[in-house]
Design a protein that fits this description.
Blueprint (H helix, E strand, L loop, with lengths): L1 H29 L35 E3 L5 E3 L7 E7 L7 H15 L5 E7 L7 H11 L6 E4 L3 H11 L3 E3 L7 E3 L2 E5 L5 E6 L3 H17 L3
Parallel strand pairs: 3-4, 4-5
Antiparallel strand pairs: 1-2, 3-8, 6-7, 8-9
Length: 223
């Protein structure tokens, strides 16, 4: 009799394991797939969007650009072709939010440094101050890996237009219509140059969210 119950016990355990596996498989099959939204200018606070784009609801992509990085190299969209990247706006002499933003961008760099699919791009909003030499000095100080992270300078209008018309990451300076006030936003861009997320670059919780969203975005290209 004891042997019978022993066999029954083993059978019950096996049955429970099989049931657990089946339930897990069903759960994974029925669980809704997580996908990141594709953001359009109409989805953003109007303060961040150029007036010409306020009503654009589809097909928005980051415009082509031609800027210069910390090594004096010309950087264009070709350098980011078939890449996921995180973009932001900063300046090297900023003493408020920029140091925290750069520190957090460096943390992202550490996570993605061996990932060939992901890069970083930081635009100076004071290009007349942030020369190539200044950017290089800053890059060395902040531990920038040249192959992963470009700090770029260039024509002020081009950078302004990118911030307002492509990334929705800056406000117009009401005291100077030819200048801008950059935000703390980090912008996640996919391989098709579409915006897939914005995050507070000074908030550790949102940096964690950004890293998770990069994983989700990467996974979407494997489907």
């Amino acid at each position: 009799m004891g042997a019978f119950f022993s066999k029954f016990k083993v059978f019950g355990i096996v049955l429970l394991i099989i049931s657990a596996v089946i339930i897990t498989l069903f759960y994974n099959a029925l669980k809704p797939e997580v996908k990141l939204p594709i953001y359009q200018p109409a989805d953003f606070n109007t303060e961040l969007v150029d007036s010409t784009l306020l009503h654009k609801k589809k097909y928005h992509t980051v415009a082509n650009f031609k800027l210069t990085n910390q090594n004096g190299e010309t950087i264009t969209q070709d350098n980011y072709a078939n890449k996921i990247y995180v973009a932001d706006f900063f300046f090297t002499t900023c003493l408020t939010i920029c140091p925290t933003m750069t520190k957090n961008m460096a943390k992202i760099q550490e996570v993605i440094k061996d990932d060939e699919d992901v890069m970083l791009l930081s635009h100076s909003v004071t290009p007349e101050i942030d020369s190539v030499a200044q950017l290089k000095k800053y890059a060395i100080k902040k531990g920038v890996i040249d192959s992963k992270w470009n700090l770029v300078t260039g024509d002020r209008k081009e950078i302004y237009d990118l911030a307002r018309k492509s990334y929705m990451a800056a406000k117009t300076d009401l005291n100077n219509p030819y200048s801008m006030v950059h935000t703390e936003n980090f912008v996640l861009v996919d391989k098709e140059k579409r915006i897939r997320g914005t995050y507070d670059g000074t908030n550790p919780k949102e940096i964690k969210e950004l890293l998770e969203d990069i994983k989700i975005l990467k996974a979407s290209y494997k489907e």
